[in-house]
Input
Amino acid sequence: MGRADTVLARSQAQTKTKFRLAGHDLNLTREKNDFYPTPPIATEQLLDVEKFDGDVWECACGDGAISKVLEQHNYKVYSTDLIDRNYGKTGIDFLTETQKCDNIITNPPFKLSLPFIYQAVKLANKKVAFLCRITFLEGVARQKMFQETPLENVYIFSRRITFTNPNNGNKTHGGGMLAFAWFVWNKNYTGKPKLNWI
Output
């Protein structure tokens, strides 16, 4: 390998690393349906700072990672998902549902986060909590959504959380390099969003 080839290979490797850290997957190793179960500590930390009055709908429940923690805290949880992962009621497309619920808590499919939020705010009677990347704050379409919906709190994780992919030998996804936060909407809130750390 000549010097030019070495420099090109190094540049390509650095570019891949930058894109991977930014949340892009150049090797297409993301799980097909964006299935990365939420670590229990993430839900525990949400419940340390937010209380939810009434029942909870986990509308992208996966294998029950969030639902199980909520149930351990004595919440009545209705768990659904479009994909069958041996938990909850499956074959349910949240984006076409019309039933109401007191609260909705989920880690939405990344590509569908925006329509999921609009739908959740429409169907929840009280609160909505979504686990999303901090970069979710960016973007023109998202700015419009934030202006149109009652976002009350953004809880940023002081320590980054690491997701694993059970369909890929529990290998980590993002390796804790991606920054996440809980975004919480309150149907009775009218002020500006508040920024907090957990």
